[in-house]
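Exercise 3.2. Students should predict the tertiary structure of the chain below and write it as structure tokens, then compare their answer with the key that follows.

Predict this chain's 3D structure.
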Amino acid sequence: MCNSDGNCRPLGFLLGLPFAFLCLVISIVGIVIWIVGLLLTIICPCCLCVTVIVEFALVLIKAPLHVMEWCTSKIPC
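Answer key:
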């Protein structure tokens, strides 16, 4: 996996795979929370707390990407 600087760090990618798998499970939970939150927002748009839950679910969905970027940035070439 290459970062934005063009440096390839395959060791960081391999070490980050178990963490990415765990984050993948968390992101699946985030997808379920996101779908339920959207349905609640459609049913009752006056609930502002539901929008916060939906935003949190989006963070959970993007978690595997953040973990892989973090792991590859910590391993020197």
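Discussion points: The chain has a mean pLDDT of 74. Helices lie at 10-43, 48-61, 63-74.
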